[in-house]
Amino acid sequence: MVSFATEKKQDLNLLSRIASGDGHGENSSYFDGWKAYEENPFHPIDRPDGVIQMGLAENQLCGDLMRKWVLKHPEASICTSEGVNRFSDIAIFQDYHGLPEFRQAVAKFMEKTRNNKVKFDPDRIVMSGGATGAHETVAFCLANPGDGFLVPTPYYPGFNRDLRWRTGVNLVPVTCHSSDGFKITVEALEAAYENARKSNIPVKGLLVTNPSNPLGTTLDRECLKSLVNFTNDKGIHLIADEIYAATTFGQSEFISVAEVVEEIEDCNRDLIHIVYSLSKDMGLPGLRVGIVYSYNDRVVQIARKMSSFGLVSSQTQHLISKMLSDEDFVDEFIRESKLRLAARHAEITTGLDGLGIGWLKAKAGLFLWMDLRNLLKTATFDSETELWRVIVHQVKLNVSPGGSFHCHEPGWFRVCFANMDHKTMETALERIRVFTSQLEEETKPMVSTTMMAKKKKKCWQSNLRLSFSDTRRFDDGFFSPHSPVPPSPLVRAQT
Amino acid sequence: MKQLSTKVTSNAHGQDSSYFLGWEEYEKNPYNEIKNPNGIIQMGLAENQLCFDLIETWLAKNPDAAGLKKDGQSIFKELALFQDYHGLPEFKKALAEFMEEIRGNRVTFDPSKIVLAAGSTSANETLMFCLAEPGDAFLLPTPYYPGFDRDLKWRTGAEIVPIHCSSSNGFQITESALQQAYQQAQKLDLKVKGVLVTNPSNPLGTMLTRREINLLVDFISSKNIHLISDEIYSGTVFGFEQFVSVMDVLKDKNLENSEVSKRVHVVYSLSKDLGLPGFRVGAIYSNDEMVVSAATKMSSFGLVSSQTQYLLSALLSDKKFTSTYLNENQKRLKIRQKQLVSGLEAAGVTCLKSNAGLFCWVDMRHLLDTNTFEAELQLWKKIVYEVKLNISPGSSCHCTEPGWFRVCFANMSEDTLHLAMKRFKQYVESTDSKRMISKSSHERIKSLRKRTVSNWVFRVSWTDRVPDER
Fold first, then answer.
1. Contact: B294, A480; criterion CB under 8 Å
2. Could you tell me if B250 and B196 lie in one domain?
3. Closest Cα of chain B to A159: distance in Å?
4. One domain for residues B84 and B33
5. Are residues B274 and B396 in the same domain?
């Protein structure tokens, strides 16, 4: 009789290394927070003491506008009586070029979200399975197994999976520091490039997310130019993930790499690529609309062939082409979304200001980068993790610890604010207020009201009922939590 | 250009094959009844366009599903946010039940073992990533779907080693062919990770016999490797014979919860049975929890649009619709296939006897100048450019014998099919007469004999087949 352990080992040999390893990145402790949320999700009436999800970078502020449009435009669906005459044509359409009207509408939308400062060629638009699929496709196109991409820290944890898992590509961090607002400096780039060289990793490109996740900052024109020049000089690719392009608050401007390449003489455009999606700007992650936009003809050609592995559903292409062709709606949506994001951002930052909690000045994104360094026992990631567990399990807010974003310095947390309603935001702020005032009570009174507070390190263990024995990790794929999304009402309805 | 990966600079995507070149020619000059009556008729596209009316009728009767509503309320917002890679539970449940219905409810599918993918293109690639290392091999019976060269090998680095099947026994898989393929892989220093079959077969249109599936299950069991059964055409079976799925065989052999069953994986899609290739709905079904777990995470690279999942969960949950659809689909396919077969027969051309799929495997060996693939390609070019029919040459499907062509019948109207047959008959008759004039009597008799012999051999080999158990 073969023992279970041996059976399991045999199992492992029967599967690829990719499947049996943890390159998917979901064994990271990052997911403890999700689990806590899933086990006890906040609901204002049913579960007022539940965990509030502040780890999900979703844009839910304009869902009403979207719903209204869909109801007003039944012809955008191929299933309603107004639209069913297109049903069979669309249902059989699997051309990896995508519906021409879809590409045109997306190109137009990309232009609008960049304040019409640049033009996008619909023929360079390649579909993918969300930005997730786009990044993997770009990695497959630009790099061989063992090659590397430079990525400024802190960065979106999903890149570990998207860029590396099935491609065999390495990520080489470009360390950014809070001392200069986490700017991407040429020095840091050169240092990272040198590190890669020492590790025998051929660098194939630099990936930047602009606006940044998790920072929410945007790259200014000079910085963008320096990135283009750096990569051009080294003969490596520049991939700009602009998924948060339209999340700039209020009047803030976003400068796309597309704008900058026009301004640089002799720019080698074969090295410039943009990853985009409708998941954040339009709040449509479920529709899986990812885009690869490349200035390199060969990359467009091959990425298009690869898009067979993640085409956008033609039903969705049709809906999106109709929606984004409605220019009045799009203009109104973008304007309203920015206003609502600005308002929500102001609400949370005002709340934090009042509590003396620092945050990185930023002009975009669906989150803010909160500074809790002064609450750490020691300036270590262990301390950060301990604090995080307190926030998740005691304060009942699922925020994301900076360590999970490969931040160089402990004590930073990403806090999302656009995935909840106003009441929930108020509740979250109230909980933070209670938490900080409890901390105040435990220490001698301090006179300090500056934003980047130099408060005395607080001892937050004593009176709060804390348990640090809970350091379990997820060991293997069997017990991984759901993919990082909240239990949707669509799922809940079934149980 | 060393700035791009080898995946880009090589042509491993396989899209330079004649299979795709024929499509390009079609794109340049597509037939249209009114606008371009002399254009190329597309017979190289395995699509099912026969039953859209049934779906459209259903949509008219189901405004909630059609309008993304639940109980009259729009759930667009919720759908727009739903990106859980486990998929919409009601969709997977409905899909599992649909798969069961196609198999006469003889076997059960557990929705939690289904992994959704962006079409079977993505499903097959994902399985390769899960089961094979770069350089490992999967054995595939020839002829096979040309897209597998891309789907199974391109980005995964896996290899395909062919299991040679021949017309002498109707292209069935034999034990010796399996063993030979396995040994060939070993000679090439390739580790064999499994066997992949398409059942019903593309391009043959035939179903695997129970004997063949038993053979395969025994083979993978003894070699401790995987079996992937791509059953994408399972709902297109229109003959009197029942479709036998690998799941049927596992059940009959009492292997349902065995170690072997963990190495059997089914791939499915709604692109062929429901004729919805644009919606990108594929699925992997596996009894191995680790495969399900890994594949589920990989599905992030190609999730099914929530809008599409919702529509289809409503459609497939309507059992009255599904049973009517499956019946009607089969009826219409049967009629249309018969029209193709008789149209070809009128031109003196026979097909491999088949009762599934959206195409026929046509024997044009007697129309070749020589028994070579060069001659096959020459014939193919004539058919595309002169006869103006885009059909798929057997070589693009890795057939080992020249002269076979895949001809699709379910992606056009009846009138278009008749026109195609008319064109083809005219072509054959004109070449026959040219042949008669140019060849000597001796050669004439020889070629006639060859044609008669091949038909005779074909018929004899058919009756020699071991009768299937029911």
1. no
2. yes
3. 12
4. no
5. no
Whether residue B43 is found in the same domain as residue B68? no
| Residue of B353, B343, B337 lying closest to B408 (CA atoms) | B337
User: Residue B1: is its pLDDT beyond 60?
Assistant: no
Instruction: Say yes or no: B278 and B361 in one domain.
Output: no
What three-state secondary structure class fits A327? helix
* Confidence at A80, pLDDT banded by 50, 70, 90: very high
Please give the average per-residue pLDDT across A109-134, as a whole number. 97
> Do B269 and B331 share a domain, yes or no?
no
| A-to-B residue pairs, Cβ atoms closer than 8 angstroms | 268
Residues B93-128 pLDDT 10s:
999 999 999 999 999 999 999 999 999 999 999 999
- Residues from chain B that touch A64, judged by Cβ atoms under 8 A, are 77
CATH number for domain A21-62+332-438, candidates 3.90.180.10, 2.60.40.420, 3.90.1150.10, 3.40.50.450? 3.90.1150.10
DSSP code for B278 = G
Say if strands A367-371 and A412-416 run parallel, antiparallel, or are unpaired.
antiparallel
Q: What does CATH list as the number for A76-326?
A: 3.40.640.10
Range of the domain at B417: 6-52+327-427
Average pLDDT over residues A257-276: 96
Residues from chain A that touch B277, judged by Cβ atoms under 8 A, are: 91-94
Q: What angle do CA A330, A333, A339 make, to 5 degrees?
A: 145
A280 is catalytic: yes
In the block, residue with structure tokens 């909840």: A420
Minimal-distance CA residue of chain A relative to B46: A92
Catalytic member of A108, A204, A280, A363 = A280
Q: pLDDT value at position A488? A: 58
B182 and B48 belong to one structural domain: no
> Is 70 exceeded by the pLDDT of residue B351?
yes
Contact between B276 and A91 using a beta-carbon 8 Å cutoff: yes
B13 CB neighbours in chain A (<8 A) are 302, 305-306
Residues from chain A contacting residue B263 (CB–CB below 8 Å): 14
B437's CB contacts (< 8 A; 6+ apart) are none
Lookup result for tokens 């960049």 = A114
Angstrom distance (rounded) from CA B191 to CA B182: 9
Q: Could you list the active site residues of B? A: 145, 230, 232, 272
